Amino acid sequence: MKKIIVALALVAGILEAQTAKTILIFGGKTGYIGQKLAHLFSEQGHNVVCATSRLENREEVNLEILATQPDRIINAAGITGRPNIDWCETHKQETIRANILGALNLADFAYVYNIHLTYIGTGCIYEYDEKHPMAGGIGFTEEEAPNFNGSFYSQGKIALEKFQTSYPNILNLRIKMPISKELDKGFIGKITKYKKLVNIPNSMSILEDILPLVVDMSLRELTGIFNMVNPGTLSHNQVLDLYKKYINPQFTYENFTLEEQAKILIARRANAELSANKLLSLYPNIPSAHNSLEALLKKIASQAAEKKLTTQTLL
Ligand SMILES: NC(=O)c1ccc[n+]([C@@H]2O[C@H](COP(=O)([O-])OP(=O)(O)OC[C@H]3O[C@@H](n4cnc5c(N)ncnc54)[C@H](OP(=O)(O)O)[C@@H]3O)[C@@H](O)[C@H]2O)c1
Question: Is the CB of 188 under 6 A from ligand 1?
Answer without folding.
Answer: no
